[in-house]
Design a protein that fits this description.
Number of strands: 6
Number of helices: 5
CATH architecture of the largest domain: 2-Layer Sandwich
Shape: elongated
Helix content: 25-40%
Radius of gyration: 24 Å
Strand content: 25-35%
Strand order of the largest sheet: 1-3-2
């Protein structure tokens, strides 16, 4: 995440100068106005406008890239589908050698989910709850545990 302080005759000009320096667009930044500037009389007493422009942290892209990197390094070829509903982000992983990513009783999957959530929420105040699911493991595990509970009369 990068930020830059820029000046201009107007607030909008200062923002445009910062966007040019960062090489980005208005949708991808947050703007904080430090000084709105002042025109002055006949140029006397004028001040330039000053803004701080901060690139937004794209949490979802960061999380998806992390999951892909871990999977690749563990020897699994994966594709990732993402869905977002409010503060809930669901990352569905499919592909080959998924057992490596799930681990015994889902321990590796739980660790991957925990780390992915930490990385996604690292540089932001917009907390997202990230759920990683590999090959519908969570649904299958839920069914298994439900059947087991019913067998035991609970």
């Amino acid at each position: 995440m990068r930020d830059i302080t820029a000046q201009g005759q107007t607030v909008e000009e200062a923002i445009q100068n910062a966007l040019k320096d960062l090489g980005t667009t208005r949708e991808k930044v947050d703007v904080e106005i430090i000084d709105a500037g002042k025109k002055g009389i006949f140029g006397i007493g004028s001040r330039l406008a000053m803004v701080k422009v901060i690139e937004k942290h794209n949490q979802i892209e960061t999380a998806v890239q992390y999951v892909k990197d871990v999977a690749t390094k563990m020897g699994a070829e994966v594709s990732v589908d993402v869905s977002e509903k409010g503060k809930e982000v669901s990352i569905q992983v499919s592909g080959n050698n998924l057992g490596l990513l799930i681990g015994k009783h889902g321990q590796t999957l739980n660790a991957l989910q925990y780390l992915t959530q930490l990385i996604a929420n690292k540089d932001t105040t917009q907390f997202k709850n990230v759920v990683v699911n590999i090959g519908d493991y969570r649904e299958r595990r839920d069914e298994t545990l439900t059947l087991l509970a019913k067998k035991n009369g609970r």
